Amino acid sequence: THFGFRDVPVGEKQKLVGEVFSSVAGKYDLMNDLMSLGIHRVWKRYFVGTCQVKRGDRVLDLAGGTGDIALLLRERVGTTGSVVLGDINGEMLKVGRDRMTDRGVVSGVEFVECNAEKLPFPDASFDLVTIAFGLRNVTDKDAALREMQRVLKVGGQARVLEFSEVKADWFKPVYDFHSFNILPKLGKLFANDAESYQYLAESIRKHPPQDELKAMMEAAGFARCGYRNLSAGIVAIHTGYKT
Ligand code: SAM
């Protein structure tokens, strides 16, 4: 297979991740529902519902893909606020833009094709920066975290929603079976693409667990860093502030 993700050189990872998301873009939303039994919607609602954000704020959602988080954020910042949805992949952005148009959302969200490692925004330009199920895919995560810190205003909050380390022992075998047997089969069946979903399971296992990501956020310059596990640590929400 051409997705030998485990040992690819750093430079190639970005290209491979690009191929994965271009190949899944059209089926992305359906697959999320199937793979998580719809629970990703609950996690995302909780994530946005507990962000430090108010009406009129300017917020950035990185790796925003098809726009689930941006849509929820838009409700929170209201018509006086603005949401920038940044993603490295033009196909994902296009699906997101079409989906918003279908729902009648015509203003308040700006789409920017950009790499989280090197953001095209000035220092201190956002009240809140989020990244949901995205940091895992970024090659240089430390660079992305530093960029998130840079573009935040003082007092602003950064929030990361990401798969993490499952903490309940009894659940681990179930979760492994789901990841390495069910996921690729669902991928094959519904998206004719087992490899992208194999990549998904592998990328989750390689992502830094809770305390390590917290330390990375501290190293990137965030203050008062902390996290909260959801669903026994299947996912975690990390928070940091710019002071
Ligand atoms: N946030 C959305 C959600 O929760 O449904 C999309 C998450 S999707 C699993 C991951 C997204 O990260 C993809 O749209 C992909 O294009 C994007 N991505 C990967 N590497 C990136 C990078 N270096 N900079 C910005 N976006 C990136």
Automatic annotation (TrEMBL):
<feature type="binding site">
    <location>
        <position position="66"/>
    </location>
    <ligand>
        <name>S-adenosyl-L-methionine</name>
    </ligand>
</feature>
<comment type="pathway">
    <text>Quinol/quinone metabolism; menaquinone biosynthesis; menaquinol from 1,4-dihydroxy-2-naphthoate: step 2/2.</text>
</comment>
<dbReference type="Pfam" id="PF01209">
    <property type="entry name" value="Ubie_methyltran"/>
</dbReference>
<keyword id="KW-0474">Menaquinone biosynthesis</keyword>
<comment type="function">
    <text>Methyltransferase required for the conversion of demethylmenaquinol (DMKH2) to menaquinol (MKH2) and the conversion of 2-polyprenyl-6-methoxy-1,4-benzoquinol (DDMQH2) to 2-polyprenyl-3-methyl-6-methoxy-1,4-benzoquinol (DMQH2).</text>
</comment>
<keyword id="KW-0831">Ubiquinone biosynthesis</keyword>
<comment type="similarity">
    <text>Belongs to the class I-like SAM-binding methyltransferase superfamily. MenG/UbiE family.</text>
</comment>
<feature type="binding site">
    <location>
        <position position="87"/>
    </location>
    <ligand>
        <name>S-adenosyl-L-methionine</name>
    </ligand>
</feature>
<dbReference type="InterPro" id="IPR029063">
    <property type="entry name" value="SAM-dependent_MTases_sf"/>
</dbReference>
<keyword id="KW-0808">Transferase</keyword>
<comment type="pathway">
    <text>Cofactor biosynthesis; ubiquinone biosynthesis.</text>
</comment>
<dbReference type="GO" id="GO:0032259">
    <property type="term" value="P:methylation"/>
</dbReference>
<dbReference type="InterPro" id="IPR023576">
    <property type="entry name" value="UbiE/COQ5_MeTrFase_CS"/>
</dbReference>
<dbReference type="GO" id="GO:0043770">
    <property type="term" value="F:demethylmenaquinone methyltransferase activity"/>
</dbReference>
<protein>
    <recommendedName>
        <fullName>Ubiquinone/menaquinone biosynthesis C-methyltransferase UbiE</fullName>
        <ecNumber>2.1.1.163</ecNumber>
        <ecNumber>2.1.1.201</ecNumber>
    </recommendedName>
</protein>
<feature type="binding site">
    <location>
        <begin position="115"/>
        <end position="116"/>
    </location>
    <ligand>
        <name>S-adenosyl-L-methionine</name>
    </ligand>
</feature>
<keyword id="KW-0949">S-adenosyl-L-methionine</keyword>
<keyword id="KW-0489">Methyltransferase</keyword>
<dbReference type="GO" id="GO:0008425">
    <property type="term" value="F:2-methoxy-6-polyprenyl-1,4-benzoquinol methyltransferase activity"/>
</dbReference>
<dbReference type="InterPro" id="IPR004033">
    <property type="entry name" value="UbiE/COQ5_MeTrFase"/>
</dbReference>
